[in-house]
Amino acid sequence: MPVISIxxxxxxxxxxxxxxxxxxxxxxxxxGIPVPAFTILITEMDDINIGLGGKTLKEVKAxx
Length: 64
Prior knowledge:
Blueprint: E1 3-9, H1 13-31, E2 39-45, E3 51-52, E4 55-56, H2 57-62
Parallel strand pairs: 1-2
Antiparallel strand pairs: 3-4
């Protein structure tokens, strides 16, 4: 049973649902392992806990 872990910023339920479906389908197609065998784990982090180019994601979003 393959497990795919994703760590990312917080997103809404629709985004998570789409992400799980798309990653599962792609992984199953690529590996030949049946879709029901996959487990997808999403860990969401606050924007202050993610750094990009020396800035927090919160700072990056604020500068746009």
